[in-house]
């Protein structure tokens, strides 16, 4: 089982993911994404869903029209693990490859 990161490790990893925030109340890392419309927001969610299935690691998220909010934590570890950091990086790279 993957271990949760110590807060110093988490902060060091987050320094390389400047668009992600540590949400202490959720014990998760979060990012909000804005798109021009619902279709593009949902297309992004579809890509993230496929990525999550591939990784066996899944986001907690919400969608309101053209906004998608993603919260990543490792439920099994009770906090933020390297898997969350890795998935956040891959989600960022999805947008670099195919800007919405
Ligand atoms: C068995 C399966 O791999 C686990 O239940 C996975 C599935 N996806 C998961 N996703 C997240 N975010 N946290 C987990 O602990 C987790 N566990």
TrEMBL record:
EC number: 4.2.1.96
MF terms (GO), sorted A to Z: 4-alpha-hydroxytetrahydrobiopterin dehydratase activity
Coiled coil: none
Catalytic activity: (4aS,6R)-4a-hydroxy-L-erythro-5,6,7,8-tetrahydrobiopterin = (6R)-L-erythro-6,7-dihydrobiopterin + H2O
A Pfam family it matches: Pterin_4a
Matches recorded under InterPro entries: PCD_sf (IPR036428), Pterin_deHydtase (IPR001533)
Keyword terms, alphabetized: Lyase
Family statement drawn from the similarity comment of this UniProt entry: Belongs to the pterin-4-alpha-carbinolamine dehydratase family.
Name of this chain's protein: Putative pterin-4-alpha-carbinolamine dehydratase
